């Protein structure tokens, strides 16, 4: 491929500066280190890049040896969306569990400890928290990633999360502006649409972003969603009306604006990543997140050259690109100078488990006798959305097995799942683990079958607890993080693990 510039002129450096690419592997490839020398200022990390805290610290040190002020970003929400603990499950419950507890100081402490762990590994920029109000219970991509359906609750916990995370010296990136909670489509797969009037949007979607900005969030991430009341023609990531007129103008935000992943089909499938990236910078975005599914030097070159060409042809004002690049550098300066305000405070290594315990909601506990014999754990497993991924283990079987050796488990899906569970379980007590039963009719059918045949079945809901509680005991964890599974196992056995 023919490159358009040498990599040393100001225009090309600015074009590289606004990119946030990913890469494969647990060490930095040569092309990435070379791009850092040419002007690249940010790198995005995903689960594929992380094997252990020690390896991650070595990786970030490798990046900083090339550029000491590099922004090392990660999508670490805690809860269901974890990259730091992608192979074990998170030590922290997600937003929905924290919202269920509704203790803003607890949310701040969880975010501070999560930030402390990121900072210890050399990560200084977190694409979190989600400020989306989960007003649509059928939302396929937000769900337990949201603090809840009440805008005021989401607003106060979003602000607490931002404060806690940034007190550890890690920049927060509040997402997904102007709000992804009322969607019924996953923007990884297609373009969602929110048909709400401006008054509703102001009171519901925008409220958490206003509090996050007041709390000092260093970055805001745009959403790939169409909101006709704000801009009938373009999704938020590509909309000057939404990013510049609304977020910069009306809301008064002056920090970094970063796009959601440009390879997501809501943009890539309609505009393409090159055209989409140009439109996003022109609309007011400052950084292009790419690398979840595209993680190579060719992608970086394509996007760099698209931006350079757009400036040279007059489609993208050079001043807009320069302004975007300077905002990236300004955030890099902040992270380089941000001294954690937690000082010598002792790490709260148990705060995630304590929060998960407090988030449990039990129905039928007055009639429940704790498990004393190894049960059969039936995981009624939905297809994971792309943000969560399918690499991270979830459920209660592993934690139950610590207390009740011999615990067996299986994963089931589809219309015959209930009968398959009964066949596999034999005479064992059944623990049925579900995730968003209300969104999956086959799960409801499976539970109907199980409870008709085995009314002593225990039900653990690890998604949004929207379906009516049922079973000999119904336990809602408000998320599927490892600590949520551990707290559930404790409740089922009457034993602290």
List the helices and strands and how they pair.
Elements lengths: L9 H8 L1 E2 L9 H9 L3 E4 L7 H14 L4 E4 L20 H7 L2 H17 L4 E2 L24 H16 L4 E7 L20 H17 L4 E4 L17 H11 L5 E3 L6 H4 L4 H11 L4 E2 L7 H16 L5 H20 L13 H9 L1 E3 L12 E5 L16 H7 L4 E5 L4 H9 L4 E5 L6 H13 L4 E4 L11 E4 L5 H12 L4
Parallel strand pairs: 1-8, 2-3, 3-4, 4-5, 5-6, 6-7, 10-11, 10-12, 12-13, 13-14
Antiparallel strand pairs: 9-14
Summarize the structure in words:
- This protein has 497 residues and is α/β, with parallel strands linked by helices.
- It is built from 17 helices and 14 strands.
- Helix content is 40%, strand content 11%.
- The strands form three sheets. Strands 2-3-4-5-6-7 form a six-stranded parallel β-sheet, with helices on both faces.
- α8 links the parallel β6 and β7.
- α1 packs across α12, α4 packs across α13 and α14 crosses α17.
- The longest helix is centred in the middle third of the chain and has 20 residues.
In brief:
Helices cover 40% and strands 11% of the residues.
**Widest beta sheet: strand line-up:** 2-3-4-5-6-7
Structural class: alpha/beta
Shape: globular
- What is the typical, i.e. mean, pLDDT? 93
**Contiguous runs where pLDDT drops below 50 for at least 5 residues:** 1-7
**Number of E-state strands:** 14
Rounded to the nearest angstrom, the distance between the terminal CA atoms is 57 Å
**Helix count?**
17
Strand content range: 5-15%
**Fraction of residues in helices?**
40-55%
* Major sheet attributes: 6 strands, parallel
Q: What is the radius of gyration computed over CA atoms, rounded to a whole number of angstroms?
A: 23 Å
């Amino acid at each position: 491929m023919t490159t358009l510039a040498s990599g040393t002129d100001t225009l090309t450096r600015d074009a590289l500066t606004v990119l946030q690419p990913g890469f494969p592997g647990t060490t930095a490839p040569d092309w990435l280190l070379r791009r850092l020398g040419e002007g690249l200022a940010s790198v995005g990390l995903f689960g594929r890049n992380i094997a252990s805290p020690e390896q991650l610290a070595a990786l970030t040190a490798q990046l900083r040896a090339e550029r000491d002020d590099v922004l090392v970003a990660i999508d670490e929400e805690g809860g269901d969306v974890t990259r730091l603990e992608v192979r074990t499950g998170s030590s922290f419950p997600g937003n929905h569990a924290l919202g269920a507890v509704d203790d803003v100081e607890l949310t701040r402490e969880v975010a501070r400890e999560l930030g402390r762990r990121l900072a210890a590994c050399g990560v200084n920029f977190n694409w979190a928290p989600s400020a989306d109000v989960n007003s649509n219970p059928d939302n396929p991509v937000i769900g337990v990633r949201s603090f809840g359906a009440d805008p005021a609750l989401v607003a106060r916990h979003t602000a607490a999360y931002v404060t806690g995370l940034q007190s550890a010296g890690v920049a927060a990136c509040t997402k997904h502006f102007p709000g992804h909670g009322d969607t019924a489509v996953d923007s990884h797969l297609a373009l969602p649409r929110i048909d709400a009037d401006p008054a509703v949007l102001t009171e519901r979607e925008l409220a958490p972003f206003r509090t996050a900005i007041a709390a000092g969030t260093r970055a805001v991430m745009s959403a790939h969603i169409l909101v006709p009341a704000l801009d009938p023609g373009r999704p938020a990531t590509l909309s000057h009306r939404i990013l510049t007129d609304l977020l910069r103008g009306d809301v008064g935000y002056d920090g970094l604006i970063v796009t959601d992943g440009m390879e997501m089909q809501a943009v890539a499938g309609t505009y393409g990543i090159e055209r989409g990236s140009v439109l996003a910078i022109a609309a007011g975005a400052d950084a292009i997140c790419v690398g979840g599914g595209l993680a190579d030097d060719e992608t970086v070159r394509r996007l760099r050259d698209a931006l350079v060409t757009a400036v040279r042809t007059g489609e993208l004002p050079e001043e807009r690109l320069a302004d975007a690049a300077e905002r990236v550098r300004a955030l890099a300066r902040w992270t380089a100078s941000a001294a954690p305000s937690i000082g010598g405070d002792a790490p709260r290594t148990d705060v995630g488990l304590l929060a998960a315990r407090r988030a449990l909601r039990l129905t039928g506990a007055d009639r429940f006798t704790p498990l004393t014999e190894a049960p059969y754990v039936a995981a009624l497993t939905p297809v994971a959305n792309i943000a969560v991924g399918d690499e991270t283990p979830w459920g209660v079987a592993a934690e139950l097995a610590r207390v009740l050796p011999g615990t067996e488990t299986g994963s089931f899906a589809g219309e015959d799942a209930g009968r398959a569970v009964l066949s596999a379980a034999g005479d064992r007590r059944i623990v049925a683990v579900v995730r968003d039963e209300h969104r999956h009719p086959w799960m409801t059918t499976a539970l109907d079958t199980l409870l008709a045949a085995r009314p002593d079945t225990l039900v653990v809901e690890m998604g949004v607890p929207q379906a009516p509680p049922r079973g000999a005991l119904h336990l809602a964890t408000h998320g599927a993080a490892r600590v949520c599974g551990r707290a559930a196992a404790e409740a089922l056995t009457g034993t602290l693990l």
